[in-house]
Amino acid sequence: MPGRLKFTRVQWLIAGALLSAAAVMIGVLYFADPEEYAWLYPQCGSYRYFGVYCPGCGITRSLHALLHGDIVRALRMNLLVGAAIPVAVVVWVGPRWVFNYKFLTGAVIFLIIYGILRNIYPVLAPG
């Protein structure tokens, strides 16, 4: 078959290790609430040292809420989780335009604007 991919044994081992690590991380995130076990998760440096919300602040709590089916709470923690899932699927599929310079520049500009707006408008702040 011309369309079939052939992987080496090392590539299969790497893929298995990555999938296993992802499964463990998802399991930890499901069972350990980030608000209750804050010491277990990394803290945002921009908020910790400068008191400024970055575009990713609240994403861990948001993913925890998503794993438990609480979509409203997930979006309240970080609105980007609603956009990040479709974008992750598009990146996984990997069309050529995703890796285009203009698309990546637009994504970075969007993240910068979102980071600024969430520090101005309290409705965008995590929580």
What report would you give on this structure?
It is a single chain. With 127 residues, the chain is mainly α. The chain has one domain. It contains six helices and no strands. The chain has helices spanning 9-31, 45-50, 59-67, 71-77, 80-93, 101-120. Helix 3 runs antiparallel to helix 4. It is globular and about 50 Å long.
Produce the secondary structure layout.
Blueprint: H1 9-31, H2 45-50, H3 59-67, H4 71-77, H5 80-93, H6 101-120
Helix pairs in contact: 3-4
Q: How much beta, percentage-wise?
A: under 5%
- The shape is globular
Calculate the mean pLDDT score and round it.
Answer: 87
Largest sheet: none
- How would you classify the helix and strand content by structural class? mainly alpha
Rounded radius of gyration (Å): 18 Å
- Counted by DSSP, the helix tally is 6
Q: Uncertain runs with pLDDT below 50, 5 residues or more?
A: none
- First-last Cα distance: 52 Å
Q: How many structural units, i.e. domains?
A: 1
Task: Give the SSE order as H and E letters.
Answer: HHHHHH
Compute the number of strand runs: 0
The share of residues in helices is 55-70%
Compact description:
With about 130 residues, this protein is mainly α.
Features of the shown structure:
127 residues, mainly alpha, 6 helices
